[in-house]
Amino acid sequence: MKKIIICVAVFFVSSSFLLAVGEAKRTNFIQILTDDQGWGDLKSFGHDRILSPNIDRLAKEGLKFTSCYSSDAVCSPSRSSIITGRTPFRNGVYRWIRPSSIVHLPAKEVTLPQLLRKAGYQTSHFGKWHLSWYAEKREKSKGYYDFVLGSPDQPSMGDYGYDYWLATGNVARPNHKTPVNFFLNGKPLGETKGFSAQIVAKQIEHWMNHVRKPGEPFFMTVWFHEPHGPINSDPIFLARYSDKIKDPALKQYFANITQIDEAVGAIVDCLKKNNVYDDTLIWYTSDNGPEGDGYGSYNTKDSPSGNSRYRGTTGGLRGRKRHTYEGGVRVPGIISWPAGLKAAGVLPGNVVATPIIGSDVFPTMLELAGLEPPKDVVLDGASIVPLLQGGTLERARPLYWRNLSPLAIAIRRGDWKIAGNSQRTKFELYNLHDDPRETTNLAPYHPELFEKMKKELIAYDKEVLAEGPDWWKSEEDLKKNIPVK
Question: How many angstroms separate the CA atoms of 122 and 118, rounded?
Answer without folding.
Answer: 9
